[in-house]
Design goal:
Shape: elongated
Low-confidence stretches: none
Mean pLDDT: 88
Helix content: 55-70%
Strand order of the largest sheet: 1-2
Order of helices and strands: HHHEEHEHE
Number of helices: 5
Distance between the termini: 43 Å
Largest sheet: 2 strands, antiparallel
Number of strands: 4
Radius of gyration: 22 Å
Amino acid sequence: MEKIPSEVYCFFLELAVKLQQLRFLTAIVRNNLNISAAAKSLYTSQPGISKQLRLLEEELGVELFSRNGKHLTEITPIGRQIIIKVEGILREVNNIQILAEEYRDDRRGSLSIAATHTQACYALPPVIQIFRERYPAVTLQFH
């Protein structure tokens, strides 16, 4: 196996931290701006999430949340726009992970089938039954 150059390794290490910051951000939103609850849902510490949120806001140069002391009170207008983008990014990251998993294991994934009503009712059921027995982890979609 080829050795990964250190600058490439550092890039991906930095990227992973940023993805983790994005995950923390969405967890805060999912938990009604409660950082302690977000930390609990992610099995991590509240100070760690608070620190990563501060670092993310510093890097972006904007406040994502309004605060009253140490408590988050609401999402700022720019925060709302950023969170929408972050949710899309995390969905795409998940899609990439699924794609890679499907590539590694051809017994998993999804298969889309287009068929006429007659084919779907009469010809496909026995074939689908055999397919499902052979590939139980493949999701079938019919159109």
